[in-house]
Exodeoxyribonuclease X (Sphingomonas abaci), 254 residues
Amino acid sequence: MAPPPAPSIIRVIDLETTGNSPPAHAVIEIGWQDVALGQDGRWALQGDGGSILVNPGRPIPPITMAIHHIRDEDVADARWWHDVARPVLDPWPRRIALAAHRASFEEQYCTPALTRGADWICTWKCALRLWPDSPSFSNQVLRYWRRPEGLVHERGLPIHRAFPDAYVTAHHLRDQLNEASVAQLIQWSKEPGLLPRVRYGPDRGKEWREIEEESLIGFLTDRDPDVRHTAETEMARRRGGGHVGRLTPQELLL
């Protein structure tokens, strides 16, 4: 009897870097954790995941070391990014997408040439859609607000290290995949974030549908693309189209 086919996976990625903007900054650690589709049609974490230190080819700034505690001497003998990236970002069995929390950061370093043009799922943007009642949408706030089933507390520590952060994100991704389709999560991830509540100003903390139209109009030219997109979407809803906030089960199916 032939062995069962290898399951489709989505690989969750987390990076630690010397700073926020390549090429001035570079990767110093990559971590991953796979989420696989089971024969029962449910998604679940698969395998142990892992992490690899990377030589960034430049000194690590002290302000960055204070976040992840990776020192220059820790990565002095590590491999270079171009030697590490492709096997991690384009794994076998079949990888149907990559994922990260605020994936736009990882995408700066994990370029299409390294990912073979993979689609990305941003668990931050998807959390805005699926769990709008969360008090915040950071990886760690979602962890303690939702308390995902099966998350081993110690395995998700320390924070700001590549594997523990990827491990926590993978639990969010698993639960999102069991609420919405892969295609839907990818589509949401390609759009700006749809914010459940106003971030700042006199209406801070209010749901967008609660604010006066005069205030809403002011957000239509905001410099933040997520704020601007949310205001545009709310304005469209008031004009008879679009949606802000939690989707109904029927809308999720569509």
Notes: Residues 58 and 79 are 13 Å apart (CA to CA). The first strand starts at residue 9 and ends at 17.
